[in-house]
Fold these 2 entries.
Entry 1:
Amino acid sequence: MSIFSFICLFSFTGSTSVNHVFVQTGEDLILNLTEVTTAQNSDLWLWQFNGKAWVKCSPPSPPIVKETHTGRIEVLEKTYNVKLKNLHKSDSGIYTARSVQPKDQKLTEYNVTVQDPVSQPDLYIDSVSSSSSSCNFTATCRTEDSSIRSSIRCDNKICHQDEGKRSVVTQSGASLHMFLSYSSIICNSSNQVSWSEKIVEIQHFCRHCSNKFKVQHCGPITTNTSSESVVLFCCCTALKHHI
Ligand SMILES: *[C@@H]1O[C@H](CO)[C@@H](O)[C@H](O)[C@H]1NC(C)=O
Ligand SMILES: *[C@@H]1O[C@H](CO)[C@@H](O)[C@H](O)[C@H]1NC(C)=O
Ligand SMILES: *[C@@H]1O[C@H](CO)[C@@H](O)[C@H](O)[C@H]1NC(C)=O
Ligand SMILES: *[C@@H]1O[C@H](CO)[C@@H](O)[C@H](O)[C@H]1NC(C)=O
Ligand SMILES: *[C@@H]1O[C@H](CO)[C@@H](O)[C@H](O)[C@H]1NC(C)=O
């Protein structure tokens, strides 16, 4: 039996609000003890993870870190804040500081979520069709577990993304968002700790509208943010046919 087993005997009450914290895998996190005075004046207080104690303190003795956690956790001097090192996804959960004696009282509570950074999404262009004044194509933005497909229509040098889904939330909790910006199509994959984008320039792609067209002049480019359309001064112009 370890010195930590006894805490199961207590039932706790508390009303502190939960602070939600997101951390990237491999990073460190400092959890702050907000009620330092209460901790200092208590006979026994704890830091817990999902209800199990891993730091125990009976002031004025210094805090004791549970053997299984030594090396991964550091209790900072004076403040009693704890530094969690090199976090893994399995470290996600509820971290609570509470005083046990003389009174059960929750001092601080954190809901910690450890996430991997997102990987860069892929952006594909297909189904291209073009005429002298318009160019239509489809853009697909994809991650390992999700994708969005959107039709884009460029009429008279102005491109519009069709209504319909422009963003999805993936199974892993990341968001995928595809939109037009200036002369580009942007696909942005993001979660709470990171984001990554893939950009395809329409002007580059416009060259491939048809072999009858080429990009003649690029810019200036303006954006109509109110309608999420792109005004494309760089567009395809017809090549003269040589006989
Ligand atoms: C703890 O406090 C430090 C310094 O004020 C701050 O940078 C850090 O984000 C806090 N930790 C949490 C989990 O809020
Ligand atoms: C902690 O955060 C996770 C992920 O956002 C959520 O599913 C869970 O309900 C939260 N738990 C508490 C006690 O707030
Ligand atoms: C592009 O789509 C519009 C609207 O559906 C259509 O009127 C136009 O003919 C299409 N252009 C080409 C080149 O397919
Ligand atoms: C991508 O999404 C994240 C999170 O919503 C945001 O902070 C970032 O600015 C976005 N990037 C672009 C280029 O829009
Ligand atoms: C921008 O879009 C709005 C809404 O579709 C439209 O009323 C406005 O004329 C557009 N502005 C330009 C400069 O194209």
Entry 2:
Amino acid sequence: MDISFLLVILQGFLLPLLKAQPGFLNLDCGGTIAYADDIGLRWIPDSNYLFGKRTNTSLTSNNETQYKTVRYFPADDRKYCYNLNVTTGLRYLVRATFLHGNFDRNSVYPKFNLSLGATYWDTITITDVTTPVTTEMVVLAQSPFLSVCLLASSSVRFISTIELRQFIGSMYYSEFERQYLMFMVARINFGALSNASVRYPDDPFDRIWESDSSRSANYQLVDVSPGTQKVATTKPVYVSWDEEPPMKVMQTAVVGNNGTLSYTIYLANNNFQRHASAYLYFAEIEDLNPNETRQFGARFPWGPTHLEVPVNVMENAGGKYRLYEPVFFDISLPLLTPLKFRQTNDSSRGPILNAFEIFKYNLINFGSLDSTAMDSLVSIYPQKEWAQEGGDPCSPIPWTWVQCNSDSQPRIISLKLSGKNLTGNIPQQLTNISGLVEL
Ligand SMILES: *[C@@H]1O[C@H](CO)[C@@H](O)[C@H](O)[C@H]1NC(C)=O
Ligand SMILES: *[C@@H]1O[C@H](CO)[C@@H](O)[C@H](O)[C@H]1NC(C)=O
Ligand SMILES: *[C@@H]1O[C@H](CO)[C@@H](O)[C@H](O)[C@H]1NC(C)=O
Ligand SMILES: *[C@@H]1O[C@H](CO)[C@@H](O)[C@H](O)[C@H]1NC(C)=O
Ligand SMILES: *[C@@H]1O[C@H](CO)[C@@H](O)[C@H](O)[C@H]1NC(C)=O
Ligand SMILES: *[C@@H]1O[C@H](CO)[C@@H](O)[C@H](O)[C@H]1NC(C)=O
Ligand SMILES: *[C@@H]1O[C@H](CO)[C@@H](O)[C@H](O)[C@H]1NC(C)=O
Ligand SMILES: *[C@@H]1O[C@H](CO)[C@@H](O)[C@H](O)[C@H]1NC(C)=O
Ligand SMILES: *[C@@H]1O[C@H](CO)[C@@H](O)[C@H](O)[C@H]1NC(C)=O
Ligand SMILES: *[C@@H]1O[C@H](CO)[C@@H](O)[C@H](O)[C@H]1NC(C)=O
């Protein structure tokens, strides 16, 4: 056979594989095979991971392969971390999911904390066996890997998936990103045509935009103003700037046909009076007559309550079918967060809203001052289990063979290297751990 012909065939097979999702990682914890799912995401098993055990869930109703297995860990005092390679200086969405699926046939459901490196992420509380618990953050990679850690617990711990999505350009840039991780509280697609979420491939970054008519575990939309109607278009909406929301999300909206559009967002599991940020997404998607206008005042709980921020979507976006995205950083959100939009007297149309995102800020814990030296030390022993514990050597829980002092950025005071089969000279890296008093 002609070799170029063969190449053509090969390309035919390889191209769909190579045209992968750049910057995506889908780790099927406890899985054994690589596969593509119904929406085209390619999953890989965590079979190189050294800790915990794989097992099958006993799901019958859920077809998603990634939920048919879990990796689980005993109840103990240590942490279990997955290290994920990233590119320093880029922003990532990090998502972890937990679907119990009755994997241990135990009616006492797990509860444990999760950290990203040394920084607290979320508390995972399992309350039933069939609903996946999902938690997500947007982070700036400040080192070449991120580590997702399941922290010590008196209950069995488990994990179903870990997903990474790399953002491009300045998406989700904030001046606080070196001090805070952005914990995703709500991402709402208003005017959604069904209960289904919008995600990949409609969102090339695979954010999950929840339908405003479905029930969310993290928030509830209450006190919806009368006269609120869904509107939708099939015309393209220009979305390629700022946070680049998916077109499908921007093609639907809610409109306050009686002059006001208001919601109260009940942040059920996120009772916080602290730093947060809010992203509002608007686009004019109705065909207004040339003599018609849509102008409204927006009242936010984080602003002075008497102040209305004027919004004219078409003017702000530079035309119809174009994104206008005001963002509010470093705001405080009450448990009941009201959003109120009121049509101005000279406007012929009521307020419109296409989508909304809220993040709260988790203060970054930079962990041990010796972490760079320790990362460099353990990288010499890629085959050794003790060198693969991952995460920060001291925080929030130290590695099993490391002792740290109690400084806010702890220093290592002792290493138990006996029985670790270290041969030859004392590794150079140890000379950089200045507080070390014992080997
Ligand atoms: C999990 O399920 C797979 C396929 O259904 C099966 O081959 C495997 O033996 C099961 N593993 C365990 C630990 O039950
Ligand atoms: C599960 O798979 C069956 C057959 O493979 C299919 O008919 C059904 O729609 C799937 N259900 C879900 C929720 O994907
Ligand atoms: C992550 O990066 C390290 C160091 O560059 C490399 O040895 C390792 O193979 C990478 N892991 C994966 C899963 O790509
Ligand atoms: C999670 O962390 C918080 C704060 O450090 C702590 O109060 C809580 O007891 C932890 N929960 C579990 C289940 O470990
Ligand atoms: C959509 O979700 C709501 C709230 O959970 C539920 O009441 C409704 O039945 C769902 N509709 C469909 C079509 O599934
Ligand atoms: C909207 O306003 C009109 C007239 O002001 C009123 O008749 C109608 O009942 C209102 N609709 C709703 C849903 O409040
Ligand atoms: C706009 O113009 C149309 C006819 O072109 C007219 O029917 C309508 O009442 C006008 N609307 C307003 C708000 O003036
Ligand atoms: C708009 O109309 C309301 C009620 O008719 C009136 O109280 C208010 O002063 C008007 N606002 C402006 C800016 O004209
Ligand atoms: C150390 O080496 C011995 C012999 O090669 C081996 O049996 C033992 O498992 C090793 N221990 C560790 C912690 O790697
Ligand atoms: C020790 O730290 C210094 C300065 O931080 C660095 O230049 C050097 O490469 C480190 N040595 C080792 C062996 O890690």
